[in-house]
Amino acid sequence: MVNHTTAPRPTPRLTATATTLALALVAALVAAAAQLPTAHAAKHILSPFACDSVTLPASKRTFDLSSIHYPLTWSNLERTPPTETRTTLLIDLCNPLPIDPATPQRDQCPPGTRICILIESIKDDKTTLTQAIPVAWSDVDGGKRIDVEVDHDDGERGFTLELPGATYADRAQKAEVELICDPRADQNAHPTSQTYDRAKGKLHLKWPTKFACSSSSSTPPKSPSSGDGGGGGKGDDSNPAEPAASAGWGFFSWLFFLVSFGFLAYMALGAYNNYNQYGASGWDLVPHRDFWRESPYIARDAASHMWRSIAGGSGSGSAGGLGFGGGGGGGGGRGAYEPL
Protein backbone atom coordinates (compact mmCIF):
# COMPACT_ATOMS: atom_id res chain seq x y z
CA MET A 1 0.00 0.00 0.00
CA VAL A 2 1.39 3.32 -1.10
CA ASN A 3 1.06 6.27 1.21
CA HIS A 4 0.31 9.48 -0.69
CA THR A 5 1.34 12.37 1.48
CA THR A 6 1.04 15.96 0.45
CA ALA A 7 3.94 18.12 1.36
CA PRO A 8 2.86 21.28 3.16
CA ARG A 9 3.00 24.39 1.03
CA PRO A 10 5.77 26.67 2.20
CA THR A 11 4.52 29.80 3.87
CA PRO A 12 5.10 32.76 1.54
CA ARG A 13 7.48 35.30 2.94
CA LEU A 14 7.83 38.98 2.12
CA THR A 15 11.21 39.52 0.55
CA ALA A 16 13.52 42.32 1.59
CA THR A 17 13.08 43.95 -1.81
CA ALA A 18 9.28 44.04 -1.51
CA THR A 19 9.52 45.42 2.02
CA THR A 20 11.86 48.17 0.90
CA LEU A 21 9.63 49.06 -2.05
CA ALA A 22 6.47 49.25 0.05
CA LEU A 23 8.12 51.36 2.74
CA ALA A 24 9.64 53.67 0.15
CA LEU A 25 6.28 54.23 -1.54
CA VAL A 26 4.53 54.93 1.76
CA ALA A 27 7.30 57.30 2.87
CA ALA A 28 7.17 59.18 -0.45
CA LEU A 29 3.39 59.48 -0.23
CA VAL A 30 3.54 60.84 3.33
CA ALA A 31 6.28 63.32 2.39
CA ALA A 32 4.32 64.56 -0.61
CA ALA A 33 1.16 64.94 1.46
CA ALA A 34 3.09 66.96 4.03
CA GLN A 35 4.24 69.37 1.34
CA LEU A 36 0.89 69.63 -0.46
CA PRO A 37 -0.35 72.76 1.36
CA THR A 38 2.58 74.72 -0.07
CA ALA A 39 1.33 73.93 -3.58
CA HIS A 40 -1.93 75.77 -3.16
CA ALA A 41 -2.24 79.29 -4.41
CA ALA A 42 -1.14 81.83 -1.82
CA LYS A 43 -3.46 84.53 -0.47
CA HIS A 44 -2.34 87.90 0.84
CA ILE A 45 -4.05 91.10 1.88
CA LEU A 46 -2.89 94.21 0.05
CA SER A 47 -3.52 97.06 2.47
CA PRO A 48 -3.96 99.59 1.11
CA PHE A 49 -4.49 98.39 -2.44
CA ALA A 50 -2.62 100.33 -5.15
CA CYS A 51 -3.55 99.36 -8.69
CA ASP A 52 -0.22 100.58 -10.09
CA SER A 53 1.81 98.25 -7.86
CA VAL A 54 0.00 94.96 -7.25
CA THR A 55 2.73 92.90 -5.59
CA LEU A 56 2.62 89.10 -5.36
CA PRO A 57 4.76 88.20 -2.33
CA ALA A 58 5.38 84.60 -3.42
CA SER A 59 7.18 85.60 -6.62
CA LYS A 60 8.08 89.22 -5.74
CA ARG A 61 6.42 90.34 -8.95
CA THR A 62 4.67 93.68 -9.23
CA PHE A 63 1.92 94.34 -11.77
CA ASP A 64 0.60 97.69 -12.98
CA LEU A 65 -3.14 97.80 -13.67
CA SER A 66 -3.32 101.58 -13.92
CA SER A 67 -2.64 101.60 -17.68
CA ILE A 68 -6.19 100.37 -18.32
CA HIS A 69 -8.48 103.25 -19.28
CA TYR A 70 -11.03 103.41 -16.45
CA PRO A 71 -13.87 103.41 -15.89
CA LEU A 72 -14.75 100.43 -18.04
CA THR A 73 -18.42 100.10 -19.01
CA TRP A 74 -20.07 96.91 -20.20
CA SER A 75 -23.76 96.62 -21.00
CA ASN A 76 -26.17 93.85 -22.02
CA LEU A 77 -29.78 94.12 -23.18
CA GLU A 78 -32.13 91.17 -22.75
CA ARG A 79 -35.77 90.65 -23.70
CA THR A 80 -37.78 89.95 -20.55
CA PRO A 81 -41.43 90.37 -21.67
CA PRO A 82 -43.30 92.57 -21.13
CA THR A 83 -40.13 94.63 -20.64
CA GLU A 84 -36.51 94.66 -21.68
CA THR A 85 -33.78 94.49 -19.05
CA ARG A 86 -30.47 96.25 -19.42
CA THR A 87 -27.59 95.25 -17.14
CA THR A 88 -24.63 97.62 -16.96
CA LEU A 89 -21.33 96.88 -15.27
CA LEU A 90 -19.03 99.76 -14.26
CA ILE A 91 -15.44 98.99 -13.22
CA ASP A 92 -12.58 101.10 -11.88
CA LEU A 93 -9.94 99.16 -9.96
CA CYS A 94 -7.85 102.26 -9.25
CA ASN A 95 -10.31 104.85 -7.93
CA PRO A 96 -13.92 105.16 -6.80
CA LEU A 97 -16.37 105.51 -9.67
CA PRO A 98 -17.32 109.12 -10.36
CA ILE A 99 -20.67 110.35 -9.09
CA ASP A 100 -22.97 111.84 -11.72
CA PRO A 101 -24.30 115.12 -10.26
CA ALA A 102 -27.20 115.11 -12.73
CA THR A 103 -28.46 111.75 -11.45
CA PRO A 104 -30.20 111.35 -8.08
CA GLN A 105 -27.99 109.58 -5.55
CA ARG A 106 -30.57 106.82 -5.08
CA ASP A 107 -30.24 105.99 -8.80
CA GLN A 108 -26.52 105.20 -8.69
CA CYS A 109 -24.09 103.28 -6.54
CA PRO A 110 -22.92 105.09 -3.40
CA PRO A 111 -19.64 107.04 -3.22
CA GLY A 112 -16.62 104.80 -2.76
CA THR A 113 -17.86 102.14 -5.21
CA ARG A 114 -15.27 100.57 -7.52
CA ILE A 115 -17.48 97.98 -9.23
CA CYS A 116 -21.17 98.70 -9.70
CA ILE A 117 -24.02 96.70 -11.27
CA LEU A 118 -26.93 98.74 -12.61
CA ILE A 119 -30.13 96.98 -13.68
CA GLU A 120 -32.76 98.92 -15.62
CA SER A 121 -36.22 97.95 -16.82
CA ILE A 122 -37.32 99.38 -20.18
CA LYS A 123 -40.96 99.52 -21.28
CA ASP A 124 -42.63 101.80 -23.81
CA ASP A 125 -39.40 103.80 -24.18
CA LYS A 126 -39.42 104.49 -20.45
CA THR A 127 -36.35 103.41 -18.47
CA THR A 128 -36.57 102.69 -14.75
CA LEU A 129 -33.57 101.80 -12.61
CA THR A 130 -34.46 98.83 -10.41
CA GLN A 131 -31.13 97.92 -8.81
CA ALA A 132 -27.78 99.61 -8.12
CA ILE A 133 -25.49 97.05 -6.51
CA PRO A 134 -22.11 98.17 -5.07
CA VAL A 135 -20.26 94.85 -5.28
CA ALA A 136 -16.85 96.46 -4.64
CA TRP A 137 -16.91 99.38 -2.24
CA SER A 138 -15.09 101.12 0.61
CA ASP A 139 -15.95 104.05 2.84
CA VAL A 140 -12.41 104.55 4.20
CA ASP A 141 -10.95 107.94 3.29
CA GLY A 142 -13.87 108.67 1.02
CA GLY A 143 -13.46 105.35 -0.75
CA LYS A 144 -9.87 106.12 -1.81
CA ARG A 145 -8.50 103.36 0.42
CA ILE A 146 -9.56 99.74 0.03
CA ASP A 147 -8.05 96.49 1.27
CA VAL A 148 -7.92 93.78 -1.39
CA GLU A 149 -7.09 90.09 -1.07
CA VAL A 150 -4.88 88.74 -3.85
CA ASP A 151 -4.95 85.02 -4.66
CA HIS A 152 -2.08 83.71 -6.76
CA ASP A 153 0.59 81.05 -7.26
CA ASP A 154 3.67 82.41 -9.02
CA GLY A 155 1.99 85.08 -11.13
CA GLU A 156 2.87 83.40 -14.43
CA ARG A 157 -0.73 82.76 -15.50
CA GLY A 158 -2.36 85.65 -13.70
CA PHE A 159 -3.92 86.28 -10.32
CA THR A 160 -7.27 86.96 -8.65
CA LEU A 161 -8.35 90.05 -6.72
CA GLU A 162 -11.11 89.81 -4.12
CA LEU A 163 -12.64 93.19 -3.33
CA PRO A 164 -15.10 93.76 -0.47
CA GLY A 165 -18.42 95.42 -1.21
CA ALA A 166 -21.20 97.19 0.61
CA THR A 167 -24.22 95.54 2.20
CA TYR A 168 -27.05 95.36 -0.31
CA ALA A 169 -30.45 93.78 0.37
CA ASP A 170 -29.10 92.53 3.71
CA ARG A 171 -26.24 90.67 2.00
CA ALA A 172 -22.56 91.56 2.18
CA GLN A 173 -21.32 91.95 -1.38
CA LYS A 174 -17.93 91.15 -2.85
CA ALA A 175 -16.27 90.99 -6.25
CA GLU A 176 -13.83 88.34 -7.44
CA VAL A 177 -11.79 89.58 -10.41
CA GLU A 178 -9.80 86.81 -12.09
CA LEU A 179 -7.11 88.49 -14.19
CA ILE A 180 -5.81 86.03 -16.79
CA CYS A 181 -2.60 86.54 -18.73
CA ASP A 182 -3.35 87.15 -22.42
CA PRO A 183 -0.48 88.93 -24.20
CA ARG A 184 -2.64 89.42 -27.31
CA ALA A 185 -5.49 91.17 -25.49
CA ASP A 186 -6.26 94.80 -26.28
CA GLN A 187 -5.16 97.38 -23.73
CA ASN A 188 -8.77 98.09 -22.78
CA ALA A 189 -10.12 94.56 -23.13
CA HIS A 190 -13.28 93.93 -21.12
CA PRO A 191 -14.04 90.91 -18.94
CA THR A 192 -15.22 88.01 -21.08
CA SER A 193 -17.30 86.29 -18.41
CA GLN A 194 -19.49 87.91 -15.77
CA THR A 195 -21.60 85.98 -13.28
CA TYR A 196 -23.38 87.28 -10.20
CA ASP A 197 -24.64 84.97 -7.46
CA ARG A 198 -27.31 87.01 -5.72
CA ALA A 199 -27.73 84.44 -2.92
CA LYS A 200 -24.09 84.95 -1.94
CA GLY A 201 -23.80 88.54 -3.12
CA LYS A 202 -20.75 87.62 -5.19
CA LEU A 203 -19.71 88.89 -8.61
CA HIS A 204 -17.12 86.83 -10.51
CA LEU A 205 -15.29 88.28 -13.49
CA LYS A 206 -12.89 86.54 -15.86
CA TRP A 207 -10.70 89.18 -17.40
CA PRO A 208 -8.06 88.30 -20.01
CA THR A 209 -5.52 91.13 -20.10
CA LYS A 210 -1.89 91.63 -21.05
CA PHE A 211 -1.33 93.50 -17.79
CA ALA A 212 -1.61 90.20 -15.88
CA CYS A 213 1.32 88.66 -17.79
CA SER A 214 4.74 88.17 -16.26
CA SER A 215 6.29 90.03 -19.20
CA SER A 216 4.53 93.20 -18.05
CA SER A 217 5.56 92.80 -14.41
CA SER A 218 8.63 94.11 -12.69
CA THR A 219 10.90 92.31 -10.24
CA PRO A 220 13.21 93.72 -7.59
CA PRO A 221 16.79 94.38 -8.79
CA LYS A 222 19.41 91.78 -8.01
CA SER A 223 21.83 92.36 -5.16
CA PRO A 224 25.22 93.86 -6.00
CA SER A 225 26.86 90.54 -5.15
CA SER A 226 25.56 89.10 -8.42
CA GLY A 227 28.19 91.07 -10.29
CA ASP A 228 28.11 94.21 -12.39
CA GLY A 229 30.37 93.45 -15.28
CA GLY A 230 29.56 93.23 -18.96
CA GLY A 231 25.91 94.28 -18.74
CA GLY A 232 25.94 98.00 -18.20
CA GLY A 233 22.59 99.41 -17.11
CA LYS A 234 20.64 96.46 -18.55
CA GLY A 235 21.55 94.01 -15.85
CA ASP A 236 18.32 94.53 -13.91
CA ASP A 237 16.15 93.28 -16.80
CA SER A 238 18.28 90.38 -17.99
CA ASN A 239 16.35 87.61 -16.24
CA PRO A 240 12.95 88.95 -15.16
CA ALA A 241 11.46 85.45 -14.85
CA GLU A 242 14.08 83.98 -12.53
CA PRO A 243 12.05 84.30 -9.28
CA ALA A 244 9.21 82.25 -10.76
CA ALA A 245 11.58 79.56 -12.00
CA SER A 246 12.25 78.46 -8.43
CA ALA A 247 8.66 78.79 -7.28
CA GLY A 248 8.26 74.99 -7.28
CA TRP A 249 5.47 72.76 -8.51
CA GLY A 250 1.95 73.97 -9.01
CA PHE A 251 -1.14 72.41 -7.48
CA PHE A 252 -1.90 70.08 -10.39
CA SER A 253 1.71 68.85 -10.51
CA TRP A 254 1.48 67.89 -6.85
CA LEU A 255 -1.95 66.35 -7.39
CA PHE A 256 -0.63 64.19 -10.25
CA PHE A 257 2.36 63.21 -8.13
CA LEU A 258 0.18 62.18 -5.17
CA VAL A 259 -2.29 60.24 -7.30
CA SER A 260 0.52 58.38 -9.08
CA PHE A 261 2.28 57.44 -5.88
CA GLY A 262 -0.97 56.51 -4.21
CA PHE A 263 -1.84 54.18 -7.09
CA LEU A 264 1.62 52.58 -7.02
CA ALA A 265 1.43 52.11 -3.24
CA TYR A 266 -2.05 50.59 -3.58
CA MET A 267 -0.83 48.14 -6.23
CA ALA A 268 2.35 47.21 -4.35
CA LEU A 269 0.70 46.70 -0.97
CA GLY A 270 -2.29 44.92 -2.54
CA ALA A 271 0.00 42.55 -4.44
CA TYR A 272 1.95 41.86 -1.27
CA ASN A 273 -1.24 41.12 0.63
CA ASN A 274 -2.51 38.71 -2.06
CA TYR A 275 0.86 36.96 -2.19
CA ASN A 276 1.32 36.75 1.56
CA GLN A 277 -2.25 35.72 2.40
CA TYR A 278 -3.17 33.52 -0.55
CA GLY A 279 0.08 32.64 -2.29
CA ALA A 280 -1.18 34.30 -5.46
CA SER A 281 0.97 34.75 -8.55
CA GLY A 282 0.70 36.37 -11.97
CA TRP A 283 -2.49 38.33 -12.59
CA ASP A 284 -3.91 37.04 -9.31
CA LEU A 285 -1.53 39.42 -7.53
CA VAL A 286 -3.50 42.44 -8.79
CA PRO A 287 -5.66 43.79 -5.93
CA HIS A 288 -9.40 43.85 -6.65
CA ARG A 289 -8.75 42.20 -9.98
CA ASP A 290 -12.45 41.78 -10.79
CA PHE A 291 -13.04 45.50 -10.39
CA TRP A 292 -10.22 46.41 -12.77
CA ARG A 293 -11.46 43.85 -15.27
CA GLU A 294 -14.94 45.39 -15.20
CA SER A 295 -13.80 49.03 -15.00
CA PRO A 296 -13.98 49.70 -18.79
CA TYR A 297 -17.63 48.64 -18.81
CA ILE A 298 -18.37 50.66 -15.66
CA ALA A 299 -16.79 53.73 -17.24
CA ARG A 300 -18.76 53.19 -20.44
CA ASP A 301 -22.06 52.92 -18.56
CA ALA A 302 -21.26 56.00 -16.46
CA ALA A 303 -20.37 58.04 -19.55
CA SER A 304 -23.55 56.91 -21.29
CA HIS A 305 -25.65 57.89 -18.27
CA MET A 306 -23.99 61.32 -18.04
CA TRP A 307 -24.50 61.93 -21.75
CA ARG A 308 -28.21 61.09 -21.48
CA SER A 309 -28.55 63.43 -18.50
CA ILE A 310 -26.81 66.28 -20.33
CA ALA A 311 -28.71 65.73 -23.55
CA GLY A 312 -31.99 65.58 -21.67
CA GLY A 313 -31.35 68.92 -19.92
CA SER A 314 -29.85 70.78 -22.86
CA GLY A 315 -33.10 72.56 -23.56
CA SER A 316 -32.86 74.66 -20.38
CA GLY A 317 -29.83 76.78 -21.21
CA SER A 318 -29.16 80.03 -19.35
CA ALA A 319 -29.50 83.46 -20.83
CA GLY A 320 -26.38 85.15 -22.14
CA GLY A 321 -24.70 88.14 -20.57
CA LEU A 322 -24.41 88.75 -16.87
CA GLY A 323 -25.81 85.61 -15.27
CA PHE A 324 -27.75 85.99 -12.06
CA GLY A 325 -27.58 82.81 -10.02
CA GLY A 326 -29.38 82.30 -6.79
CA GLY A 327 -31.53 80.16 -4.65
CA GLY A 328 -34.86 78.83 -5.69
CA GLY A 329 -36.02 77.09 -8.81
CA GLY A 330 -36.23 78.46 -12.27
CA GLY A 331 -33.44 79.48 -14.56
CA GLY A 332 -33.08 82.75 -16.40
CA GLY A 333 -35.90 85.03 -17.43
CA ARG A 334 -37.47 87.90 -15.58
CA GLY A 335 -37.12 86.26 -12.19
CA ALA A 336 -33.36 86.71 -12.38
CA TYR A 337 -33.82 90.49 -12.30
CA GLU A 338 -36.31 90.79 -9.48
CA PRO A 339 -35.07 92.78 -6.45
CA LEU A 340 -32.37 90.86 -4.65
Number of E-type strands: 13
CATH class of the domain at 43-212: Mainly Beta
CATH topology of the domain at 43-212: Cation-dependent Mannose-6-phosphate Receptor, Chain A
Largest sheet: 7 strands, mixed
Instruction: Identify the overall geometry.
Output: elongated
Strand content: 25-35%
Which stretches are poorly predicted, pLDDT < 50 over at least 5 residues? 7-17, 221-247, 314-320, 326-340
In N-to-C order, the SSE pattern is: HEEEEEEEEEEEEHHHE
N→C terminal distance: 97 Å
Task: From the alpha carbons, calculate the radius of gyration and give it in angstroms.
Answer: 29 Å
Strand order of the largest sheet: 1-8-9-10-12-11-13
Helix content bin: 10-25%
CATH architectural label of the domain at 43-212 = Distorted Sandwich
CATH superfamily of the domain at 43-212: Mannose-6-phosphate receptor binding domain
Structural class label: alpha+beta
Rounded mean pLDDT score: 77
Please, how many helices?
4
**How would you describe the oligomerization state of the chains in this entry?**
single chain
Subcellular location: Cytoplasmic vesicle membrane; Golgi apparatus membrane; Mitochondrion membrane; Preautophagosomal structure membrane
Main location: membrane
Family: Belongs to the ATG27 family.
Signal peptide: 1-41
